[in-house]
## 1
Amino acid sequence: MPDIYRLTKQIAKYLNHHQVNQVRRAYYYAEQAHLDQKRFSGEPYITHPYAVAVLLTDMKMDEKGLMAALLHDVIEDSQITKQAISLQFGREVADIVDGVSKLAHINFRSRAHAQAENFQKMSLALAKDIRVILVKLADRLHNMSTLGVMPASKRRIKARETLEIYSPIANRLGMHNINVELEELSFSALYPLRYRLLMQAVKKIRGKRELLVKQAIYFFEYELKKNNITATVIGREKHLYSIYQKMKIRRKSFSEIMDVFGIRVLVQKKDDCYRILGIIHSVYKPFPGRFKDYIAIPKINGYQSLHTTLFGEKGTPIEVQMRTLDMDRIANYGIASHWLYKKTKDAELKARQWGNQRWIDDLLELQQISTNSVDFIENVKTSLFPDSIYVFTPKGDIIELPQGATVIDFAYALHTYIGNQCATCRINKQLSSLNTVLESGQTIEIITSNKVNPVKSWLMFSVSSKARSNIRHYLKNNSV
Ligand code: MN
């Protein structure tokens, strides 16, 4: 059952008195709004938004995000409007709640399998505020962890959707912890038998490997101490879904997967990662071709680590990861570590945290020029996928267009013939002109007429190469 006292105690560790009270107020408001509603399990509905908020305290979500988490199903499930929430709790909270509700609606559209990737991108582009995504991911995580009460068919649909849409989003944002949980829950719901078999297989070899890993850890600690390096050495186990994926994609049997168990070394300074690498390579023989320097070249989601695989005792491979505590936090929380890090002043440290890929660079720059976290969040939306917008056909297919695209570009994206004869259009059912610049999330219907032909002025308001080359082609062949 929800325990508002426990929640407030938890957030009082990083929020001030006024902020805690705001969150408390949102809780009571949500409790009232859902008063007569029950979850599928029979529990009072408020248990769900409460649990979503609790999940977000883990990443030290700010008070507005927590309020939105508590209120996230209020517009959807009661008569309460966005305006009412805005009046009570301010525009920012209302916008997040509204964003989460809108994302829920898109789920019900027809969506071809092949479009899943576009859909992920679009969800991100559509969300005006990164907190919308974080609330949505926590919402999905709680729903997945309480999936057991649902009928089997519904469980499978939710699990598949989670694997196609939500866990890749979590991965894209570098949120490893949430991603792992989503994948494990979905895997066990979608393929209960395979999940159980794999779990048993891991259990079976665990005993044997555990000893080996323990010996290696002991040795690591000894060597590091000798070299005056302060480090934490821990054993780790790959999660079942990632083992399953590896078996499937690389067509390998379970016994061929060598990195089920491994070692992680956490240190204070980056230099220590390389020093440790030198030390262990001088004692254990490294597997050729398995060393990866994700510190110098971070993954696109900001992940940084050194990876190597060693020949352990009797030739058994041991995978080792080395990273700093800061990198570890990024590896686990990704974009959400912004909240964990709010107090970090050191710009150079931040630079390393975020890696050097373009969008991460953008984020970093924004973080530095933004005077407060609100600015930062507001700016995140445009930096995730700055070059594209995502719009719908009336049937619900998703079309990707360059930023600044107009109705003309959309028409040509469907078919040259539709472009050449597009007479007028409806955007979200409203009659609109052909030079209207489109925005993500709109639904566009093209009305064609065989009396229409491309004219020169269309070149002034089309940006996609497909539209422009087709218009030019037509004008050249039909000029008098
Ligand atoms: Mn919900």
## 2
Amino acid sequence: MTANRGFGIDIGGSGIKGALVDLDKGELIGDRLRIDTPKPSTPEAVADVVARIVEHFGWDGPVGITLPAVIKKGVAQTAANIDPSWIGLDAGALFAERLGRDIGDVAMLNDADAAGMAEMRFGDPAARKGVVALLTFGTGIGSALFQNGSLMPNTEFGHIEVDGHDAEKKAAASAKDNEGLSYPDWAKRVNRYLTVLENLIWPDLFIVGGGVSKKSHKWVPLLDIRTPVITASLLNNAGIVGAAAAAKEGLSH
Ligand code: BGC
């Protein structure tokens, strides 16, 4: 049994996933537990699921929790793919109360920021140099921006306007599924999105993650942009691992 353990929960628009994490290796310890996100995804309903997951593992230490939202000092400021009643809510306080924890033992952060933190700690070392943008393609598009490994939180690059549309509505993995697009057709949209983004932020590297990165060989080679693109190393568990790391280290935002 490893000494350096943590616990992370990744709340998404379709599923809530939690697991014990080995914080030396950046890997899950045993299986993760996934429960469908309740509909509607109100704070109370989601907090019940989070409590079930923590109880399932019998975990009594600090907990890192992600939301698909801008998070400032524990308070959700947006809610793109979850119930709007999260906006303005102190999510950190809600979970701390529901889980019987001190507020300092619950780290709340944006889901893509968590995934990015995991990549910085446990992924390709090349990602720790220069300006690096991690993008997660799922229900929406999440983003995490780093300069030499330091996070600039809450960037929300999934919502830049591309050709008159909110970018994630056209280029998220959900758009591919909902519109029945082939990988090459969807890759064209991702290519257009990344071109607009690279012209705004001039990164040294893009890291692409989210569930669709498991099939990255079908679309990443089709991208034709200035910035190098690599696939996330931690794939779908990056949010859980990053959340657990944030809980262990404490968060400053
Ligand atoms: C939200 C982000 C989130 C991303 C991925 C977007 O719609 O605005 O906060 O990181 O989806 O879940």
## 3
Amino acid sequence: MSDLFLKGKTALVTGSAQGIGLAIATRLAQAGANIVLHGLASPEQISEAKATVMAAGATDVMFSDADVSQPVAIEAMMKQVLAWKGGLEILVNNAGIQHTASVVDMPAAKWEAIIAINLSSAFHTMQAALPGMIEKGFGRIINIASVHGLVASAQKGPYVAAKFGLVGLSKVAALEVAAVGSRESGGVTVNCIAPGWTETALIAPQILARAAKYGGDMKLGEQDLLKEKQPSLRTSAPSEIGEVAAMLCQTWAHNINGITLPVDGAWTSQ
Ligand code: NAD
């Protein structure tokens, strides 16, 4: 892909040391952006992620290890990121965690952590990033929600609450910036992507739990998970979510605003 449509632009992807975040950062790097990688990771994982985005074509790369459960840490990260290249055109709120238990059994601390990381962190990053985007007449906020921002599943109370909240927050922000800029400048848009089952570390414990029914066979565990909810019976690759994010960053996407785009093998069509 040689279309450098993000040359001169800077993108922060939270939770991009691995998984969906790294795939999105890699795809935005292919379009020539300066990339801010972020997450909680080992030094080896950080070097590897940096090398991956540079090899993909990033103009420059930096890494932040801010703990996004802490508003003070987010504030410091956003100051550093905004100063790095004189602004931030693309913000992808992707960092997220999961914990499965019934509402009755869910530890209160897990509720607090999931709401802080999966929802409140996006409020804080958006609050810091939007003024510069509005001033430039161009900006893209992409919030990685989930099918669980559109429909519920048992055992996922805080996760579903956070993702529904993220969808709502994105719609509000989209309304507030809808008239900014022009077709030529690209405007400012705020959208969600709603993945179904996607091959990352996040879903491994859930596959492992199912695999136990099949003598530990992970492939059969995955099939069991898919057949319950995802009619395509196929997972998504993280790179496929990266393609959707890149599409939303195009100038021509100025009027795609306030949507939640499922990548879910028809899960939410049921
Ligand atoms: P992952 O576990 O591979 O990556 C999560 C990232 O978030 C990591 O880089 C981690 O360091 C970072 N992170 C977690 N807590 C953090 C904290 N307190 N401070 C800073 N960074 C933190 O997971 P993934 O599957 O790539 O998930 C990415 C996003 O996609 C999440 O928001 C998740 O809810 C969403 N999602 C994933 C799936 C799926 O099937 N994998 C489906 C729907 C939605």
## 4
Amino acid sequence: MSRAGASPEPSHASGGEPPAPQHVAIIMDGNGRWAKARGLPRTAGHERGVEALRRTVEAAGDLGIKYLTVFSFSTENWRRPAAEVNVLFGLLKAYVQRDLQRLKHEGVRVRIIGQREGLPPDIAELVGRAERETAGNSAFHLTIAFNYGSRNEILRAAEAYARSLREAGDTGPLTEEMFSSFLDTSGLPDPDLMIRTSGEYRISNFLLWQAAYAELLFMDVLWPDFGRAHLEGAIAKYHERERRFGAVVPGAS
Ligand code: IPE
Ligand code: IPE
Ligand code: MG
């Protein structure tokens, strides 16, 4: 990334491109099919998927996106063979170990969302360190959803809210803002654009609460092939959408 956020003002101010979506969420899907098409083991697809993630983080910063949230391992992915799960955990670990210092230097704030319980201690320690070391950054926000499922997140938030009631007493009616603050994504804006690669048309338990008004884009590319041009194409599609948030757009018949 050419120091993420170094030029945070998109060029639309001078009459050029409209602003990029502030927050893009991506369901990085299709690693297994990418590998299968080449006669390779599924894990080779996951390895190439990490390279696609690196390309995408860099491109997102350059294109003026401030928040990128990627789905890396779901609470349902535990249903996969243990060997594949181990590789996915190893790849997260290697990614954080290899890229943390560079991301930190580039002003990237790293967050990992999902259930910490159940993560191997070394990974829990590493992601905790990544979050602590980048907590002061704000040029770009990279959030990795790992051992994440939206229903699990909402349940944990409900439990945390109930705990707060027991400890602090009744604080009045529960608002959407208050409930959001108990979610793993507390402090992040809602995604404007949610992309899923690989041609599947489903959300697979990703950001169910947060994506209430996200624009959804399903792309035919398999994740390991994803790169800057795909992200640019996705932003162009996003700009064709009319976001109404339930209201009537002025001038519409
Ligand atoms: C996405 O690719 C990575 C994870 C879900 C962990 P897949 O592994 O789901 O690849 P396909 O969908 O089987 O091709
Ligand atoms: C969603 O992909 C989870 C991630 C990309 C991490 P899956 O491949 O697990 O989803 P399904 O099984 O096709 O719904
Ligand atoms: Mg898949």
